[in-house]
Each structure stands twice: as structure tokens, then as C-alpha cells.
Amino acid sequence: MALLTLLAAVTVGVVRMRNLFGVVVLASIYSFLMASLFVALDAVDVAMTEAAVGAGVSTVVLLATLHLTGSMEYPRPRKAYLPLFVAFVTGAALVWGTFSLPPFGTADAPIHQHVAPRYLSESIKETLVPNVVTAVLADYRGYDTLGEATVVFTAGIGVMLLLRGRRRQSAGRTREEHGP
Amino acid sequence: MSTLKTFIEHYNYFITIFLMVAGLYIVIARGNMIKKLVGLALFQTSVYLLYIAPGKIIGGTAPVLDPAFKVYANPLPHVLILTAIVVGVATLALGLAIVARIHEAYGTVEEDEIFAREAEE
Amino acid sequence: MKLDLILRVVIKLFLPFILLFALYVQFHGELGPGGGFQAGVIVAGTFILYAIMFGAHAAKRIVPQRLVELMVPLGVLIFAGTGAAAQAFGGNFLDYAVFSHDPPHGRELGIFLVEVGVLITVSGTMIAIFYAFTGRGRS
Questions:
Q1: Model pTM?
Q2: Which A residues 3-62 touch C at CB under 8 Å?
Q3: Could you say which residues from 31 to 60 on chain B have a Cβ atom under 8 Å away from some Cβ of chain A?
Q4: Which of A49, A123, B9, B117 is most buried, with most CB under 10 Å away?
Q5: Looking at this predicted complex, what is its ipTM?
Q6: How would you label A47-71 residue by residue, b for 16+ Cβ within 10 Å and e otherwise?
């Protein structure tokens, strides 16, 4: 519960801060807090992935982009009342919706009833793999994982296409030569 | 007393919605593109929390089968969110590459200046 | 330059252990938390740390650009190839049960191969993204 409150505090910092380097550091702290929260929620695989990806790769890529562009955000010329109102209305609607969700941590919630007990009981017999998450990820839901590997591949190819080659000029021109 | 109990039981949902709305606000209200992408990442992470929190059972443990434990957390949201995290970082990297190219083409990553420059041409 | 020296020595000591930990996470993904994605990101993190500390040129001597460009599609190929091999053995696409004499062992083998494919693609992509971003600088 304290972790959740800390998360909210860090988020307020991200919204308000104008120095982008500070924003990136706060985002990294946010990912770390999120990973700790996942461990507290018994989601160990997800926590490891979020820690490695969010606090690692994501921060590195953001810092590399800050190196290529500037690192300060300009103040807005006018106050942003309409987005604040839209955000508030959306939040209120969502909060009203959560009142019909089951309380935290109950064992008889609907999501524990249909497929999950089957996975938990049958997976060790059918796959000999104790980690149910890996078994579901690679075997029962293997198509999704193939799609995900393809998405990662596409992102890598896309970044390589966009950023290969050395750039020649500064703002205004886009002439560049392409590397080998 | 009952409202306080409801509030504490649903506290994780409230924080999740606050994170979601904060991310949404950053995306629509701030003009700097890098900050928008950070706001989008914040929004995505709050959705992960939305999925994983109901999967926890109080008194259960992580979904790795072991003879000593009987009650496990629900593995299905873990699988979906694992995929979502990796896809999220892939899109973040691609978005930041596009932002870097925009900076090279326009000299700025502020939305207002780019609109102004486009309107001049 | 004293701080630089401490970082260099300590990171040089740590890097093999980080790589070893990544391999541990990969191969023990079946017995505990872990698996292809986490291990791939940790492997990429090892080389990115080396590149941050010693320069991109030194890193490119160890993991050249051609190798990274090869790794990115190779993992997806292994994954899809496992599925196609399952079809060649007579089952459906990605039906690992036909790999071995009894279905559970076949599925375990299939899961292992698929995780290796995921490791290669994820680590290759993360290193490729890092190289692309840092190679774009004002050089």
C-alpha cells in the first residue's frame, strides 16, 4: 500500500517536472517501484521483466534520445484546462466503474474460475515444466509469443532503418549518406 | 466504517486509475514529444497494474508449482502482461527513433513550434 | 580520473557474472522465474554496459554490427522453424507433442527451443537499438 502511494507521488513529479533528464530519472524510479510492487503481488516473472526492461533498456533509450535532442521542455503558453477537465472526467468515470469489481485478493473472483485452475493443475502433467507462466507462454499460448517475437523483430528493424547512416546537416535539411 | 473498508479494498484500483489518468494528461496536455512518450509509458504501466492486481490471492504464492504450496496466483494475467511489457518497450524505442528524426528535420521536438513551422510553409 | 578507474575495474570484474546470471535465468526459466525475455534483456544489458563504459567502438569489436543484424531475425526463424518442424513431424503448427516418444517430453523440448529463439531475438534487438541510437550522434 505504501508502494502504491509512492508510485502516485513519483507520477506527480513526472507530470510537473520540466527538465527532461529529471523526468527520465523519475521514470526509471517509477519502473523500479512498479517491479517491487509486482513482487509484492506474487508476479515474479513480470517483476523481473519490468525491472530489466523498464529500468534498464527503456531508460538507456530515453537517455540516448535526450543526447540527440535537447533536454528541456518549454512552458505552455496557455493553461491546459480542457485536458485537465477531460482527464478528471475520465478518472471519475473509471472510479465509478471500479466499485463493482471484486475486493483485492479474494480467491473466488471470476477470473480464478475458468481457465486458470486447469493450467495450474494440468501443466505439470502435460509439459513437465514447474514454472506455469513459462509453460503457458511458450506452449499453451505459443502463437501469442510468436507474434510478440515478431513485434520485437519489427521494432528492431524499424529502428535500424530509421537511424542507420550518419546525418549530415543540422535542422532544416535531411540529406544523409547511408552506411554499409 | 463500511466505506472505509471499501476504500481500503479498492485502494489499488484508485491508484491505478490515478496513474492512468496522469499518463493520459501528460499525453494530451504537454507539447514536448519525449514527455508525451514518457506519459504513454506511464499509461501502459498502469494498465499492467490493472491486470496483475486482481490476480493475486491473499495467502497464495507465485505460480511456480512446488509441493509445499497449494494456492497459487493466477498465471494468465502474468503471461499477457509479459508480452505487453516487451511490446511496450519495442514501441517506445520506435517512437523515440521517430522523435530523433523529427528533431533532425525541424530542429525541435516541441509540438507548437512544429505546427507553426508547418503553417508557414 | 580516480572515479573512472574504479568504475572500469569494477565493471570489468562484474560483466562475466552478469552474463552468467543471464544464462542462468534463461535455462532455469522452466524451474523458477525467468525465461527468454528476461534473459535476452540481461544479455543486452551486459553489452550495453560495456559499450557505455569503454566506448561503442570497443563494443563493436566484440559484438559487430553484422552479428547483431544476423541475430535479430535468427531468433524469429528458430521460433517459426520449431513450429514448422512440428508440422513436418506430423502434428499441427507449434504442436510440440510430436517431437518425442511421449507428449510431455516433446513439449518440454519445444518450450526449450522456443525460449532460445526468443533470447536471440530480444538480445539482438536491444543491442541493435542501442547501436542505432548511439551511432547517430554528431560524428
A1: 0.86
A2: 44-45, 47-49, 52-53, 56-57, 60-61
A3: 31-32, 34-35, 38-39, 41-42, 45, 48-49, 52-60
A4: A49
A5: 0.88
A6: bbbbbbbbbbbbbbbbbbbbebbbe
